[in-house]
Amino acid sequence: xxxxxxxxxxxxxxxxxxxxxxxxxxxxxxxxxxxxxxxxxxxxxxxxxxxxxxxxxxxxxxxxxxxxxxxxxxxxxxxxxxxxxxxxxxxxxxxxxxxxxxxxxxxxxxxxxxxxxxxxxxxxxxxxxxxxxxxxxxxxxxxxxxxxxxxxxxxxxxxxxxxxxxxxxxxxxxxxxxxxxxxxxxxxxxxxxxxxxxxxxxxxxxxxxxxxxxxxxxxxxxxxxxxxxxxxxxxxxxxxxxxxxxxxxxxxxxxxxxxxxxxxxxxxxxxxxxxxxxxxxxxxxxxxxxxxxxxxxxxxxxxxxxxxxxxxxxxxxxxxxxxxxxxxxxxxxxxxxxxxxxxxxxxxxxxxxxxxxxxxxxxxxxxxxxxxxxxxxxxxxxxxxxxxxxxxxxxxxxxxxxxxxxxxxxxxxxxxxxxxxxxxxxxxxxxxxxxxxxxxxxxxxxxx
Length: 448
Ligand SMILES: Cc1cc2nc3c(=O)[nH]c(=O)nc-3n(C[C@H](O)[C@H](O)[C@H](O)COP(=O)(O)OP(=O)(O)OC[C@H]3O[C@@H](n4cnc5c(N)ncnc54)[C@H](O)[C@@H]3O)c2cc1C
What we know:
- The chain is of the alpha+beta class.
- It has nine helices and 23 strands.
- The radius of gyration is 22 Å and the shape is globular.
- The chain starts with 5 loop residues before the first strand and ends in a 14-residue tail after the last helix.
- The model has no long low-confidence stretch (mean pLDDT 96).
- Residues 12-18, 43-46, 50-53, 55-59, 182-183, 213-217, 252, 254, 373-374, 376, 398, 400-404 line the site of flavin-adenine dinucleotide.
């Protein structure tokens, strides 16, 4: 393989962020007469979609308690809607179905969705919620539900297919997407902090601007850039917390119930919205009736022909290890450590049965032969960092929110061309020290 010895823009990672940035930057360079896709190279140590973007459940939603996240997600949904075919995008909508302890949070999400013109319906009260859900699915039986937020936009996309679609769009603009090229280090200028080149598995590449879209490998790239492993965070209590680890890992738990996806349709025969249920009703095993949990729990699911069944997941768990010692490779289903086990299968299948009668007694159909799950790398407040480091390195670290964030690359491309984005502003690294943290909700998920 021949790789360029010099390039203006070097993008590390062919996942959603690297590819989206490359595609949009190529378009903008051409439109402004400032260059073209030929000025951009995307390098991936494995291949397109080899990271989190290639194994993601693929859910695209607006439902976020944090105003800055919600506004950004509305822009991202527009990008998904701009070319559903190329992005393998299914605009079926999304439902957040919640217990009383989340009622107020979700009501504020609905109010703010109305304020930004994002179409949704909000149902309040136990009886009204049950009626609304039974209107969609006559076998609905989830307990402990007092509100339903039904987002009419959003839905899901097919993980690898959408990445291949995005790569094809970037390549059609002249971007080179090179697989099997690993970035091993950075070369720095003698008079500045800036990066002047990349040391790769195939030799050095001089570059003027670097974009990092390394997903769960961001801690590794961060270390190679010699950025701080521990930082100061001004907490919500107003106090400065020093020595806070910059990165931590969580393991996402997802899987597929191997039944015909056509079995999960609405009463009127349509494919349903993505369903997300959180509840504090006790969850009992669908296998032996034993109590699984009497604390707040949550699941999400959708019928998905790409996965061959009903696919979804539950809350992730925190990986209690020094981030430098976590084995990110081999990634995803290939990992010996970070894949789901029996506890997840029992919990998730029982939770499906808790929600809809059609899933009762189906645990034997769970696809145990297909390994699933994967690592995500999170920031101190579990929200993204989009910022420039060392003068010319743009780091896109989405804190595992990001398959749905296909529009971030478009905004990053604008910033690379000198136009600051108000939507990205709340995600600067300096927010930690300034204490400008995003609000947290009562959801059991670290990303809501
Ligand atoms: C199981 C699971 C389910 C998820 N479900 C959803 C979901 O439903 N909706 C949602 O919005 N988000 C979801 N996420 C989160 C989402 O997938 C990620 O936030 C997002 O895909 C990250 O995109 P990325 O482009 O930053 O990184 P990635 O897609 O991980 O791409 C990074 C790429 O960088 C390459 N790379 C790494 N290091 C180097 C190096 N040194 N040199 C060259 N290349 C390198 C890797 O090979 C990889 O291809 C999920 C995550 C997981 C793990």
